[in-house]
Amino acid sequence: MAAAGQAAVLVLVSVLWGSTGPFLRTGAAGLLDVQRRGLLRQLLAEIRFLGCNYKYMVPFLLNQCGSLLFYLTLASAELSLAVPLCNSLALIVTLVTGRILGEDIGGKRAVAGMLLTLLGLTLCVAGS
């Protein structure tokens, strides 16, 4: 796969990972209300709650598709570039998606962290 194609897939992975995080948190709302006696019954009840909840399962499956794409892309991508690129962009996408959904993203400190992350990512890419 060409470098441009790898970069596009890694950006897609970042979007899938980053955008699904806030939706997973939203979809898991109510999980703490699931109460059963015994560790095994509690575990099974939580799995059932999440597995039958489309608001959780759709983002979860999209997130896992991103993981599969990442795994397949690592066969031909440079690891030292792929990991920081995906993680940095996923963080930014998570912050933006969370903000759109009305989550508290931490104000100016989060924006400063996002800018520093972009600067670091730019330096990594430029150095390669």
From TrEMBL:
| Transmembrane region(s) | 81-101, 107-126
Name used for this protein in its record: Transmembrane protein 234
Q: Which topology term describes how it sits in the membrane?
A: Multi-pass membrane protein
Q: Where is the signal peptide?
A: 1-18
What's any one GO cellular component for it? membrane
Answer whether the UniProt record assigns the keyword Metal-binding to this protein.
no
Q: Where in the cell is it found?
A: Membrane
Q: Which domain of life is it from?
A: Eukaryota
Q: Which UniProt keywords apply?
A: Membrane, Signal, Transmembrane, Transmembrane helix
